[in-house]
Structures are given as C-alpha cells and as structure tokens.
Amino acid sequence: MSRPNSPLPPGWREVRLAEVCELQGGPSWATLRTGQHDGEGVPLVRPRDISDRRITPDGVGRLPEGAVPVQSSHHRLRPGDVLLARSGAVGRTALVSEQQAGWLFSGHLVRIRPLDDVLPDFLVGHLSRPAVATYIARHTRGSTIQHISLRDLGGIPVALPPLHTQREIGGQLAALDEKVRIHTEIARTTAELRETLGDLLFTGLLGTR
Asked: Where is the region Disordered (predicted)?
C-alpha cells in the first residue's frame, strides 16, 4: 500500500483510514419491501445500487416511513459520505451526493465519514485504487459470502497529502469519472439505437438509402 523504498513527498503523511474517518456499519433492515420502487418511503442503498463510484438511484429499494425506527438517525447519509461494500461485492465504493442526503444504507455497507483532514473526492479515489483492492482481498473472509471486518477496513493505509493537493487529486479524478459516465451513457444509447435500426432494416421498414 505504501510506496516501497520511496519516501512520501514533503507535507504528506501515512495514516490509517480509521484515524481520519468515522466508520459506521449499516444495520439489518428486515422490513425492507423488496421491489418497492414507487418513490414512497426512505431509500435504502445496497451494494447492488453502487456502480462506478456512484449510487445509481434507479431500482433502489425503500423502507416505509413508519418502519424506520427513530434511532436510525445515525444511519442517515450526508453529502460527502463514502459507502463501501463490506460483504458480497466487497470493496465497491460510492460517494454520496446532495440528492442522497437522508437516505439509509444496508448492513452490507460501511459508511465512511471523512473528518477534517481528508476530502471526500480524494477519499473515494483512494479507496478505488488497485492497491486498496489488493489490501481488501487479502483481508476478506468467508467462502460462500465474502466479508471484511470494520477493524480491517479501518486499517487501510492512506498516504495523505495536504488539503490543497487532495483537492487537486480529487478534482481530476472526479472529472475523469464524469467523462466515463458520459461515454458509458453514449455507448448504452448507441447500442439501443443499433437494436432498433437493425429491426427496421431486417424487416424492410427502413431502406438502406
């Protein structure tokens, strides 16, 4: 995880994730109505709702408002929180946006809340690094359903630069993520167009000229 035989740049320091973030595991929400996606109730994020470091809102399950206990307030998400899958698709990460404030997260996820020393965009970029994936794979347990403990997650090494450098790194990675998202959407739309056009061409409903 650290840079072997190479010192950190001036102003950088090596820390563990738990030193600069607050880690909170999600509870088990037994009352989730699977397939309830009608816009009513409180959204509940699960690992399947995470893709490309984002929460994909389409298909997110919901808890009826009356089924959410009062004490669940400390499991509500805030903008800038980072979610990481601790079981199943272990290591999948997402940054919580303004639109997802107040949502809940499942017991298969860990909420990582950055403290003052670390910026969210930098953190989600760091947790997406191949070196972190290697660390997580090495500490994952279980044969049927894989999982990693909060303690092991808290031990993830972080080479932490000054805030202005974090801001630059996070900004560059966020811009690249947005380009990936746009190109993915273009590819999806083009594939749909190809299917539609193919049907029209093969049935003679559309000429080739």
From this structure: 51-74
DSSP-assigned letters across all residues of the chain: ---TT-PPPTT-EEEEHHHHEEEEE----TT-BTT--SS-SEEEE-GGGEETBEE--TT-EEE-GGGS-GGGGGG---TT-EEEE-BSSTT-EEE--GGGTT-EE-TTEEEEEE-TTS-HHHHHHHHTSHHHHHHHHHH-B-SSS-B--HHHHHT-EEEE--HHHHHHHHHHHHHHHHHHHHHHHHHHHHHHHHHHHHHHHHTTSS---
Q: What is the CA radius of gyration of the chain?
A: 20
pTM, two decimals, is 0.83
More confident residue, 117 or 39: 117
Q: Does the pLDDT value for residue 105 go beyond 90?
A: yes
pLDDT (average), residues 14-40: 76
Instruction: Say if strands 104-105 and 42-45 run parallel, antiparallel, or are unpaired.
Output: parallel
Give the pLDDT score at 38. Answer: 53
* CA separation for the pair 107, 63 (Å, rounded): 14
Average pLDDT of the segment spanning 160-168: 97
Domains in the chain, please, with CATH?
13-161 (3.90.220.20)
Residue type (1 letter), 39: G
- State the Cα angle at 54 between 49 and 60, rounded to 5°: 25
pLDDT for 35 beyond 60: no
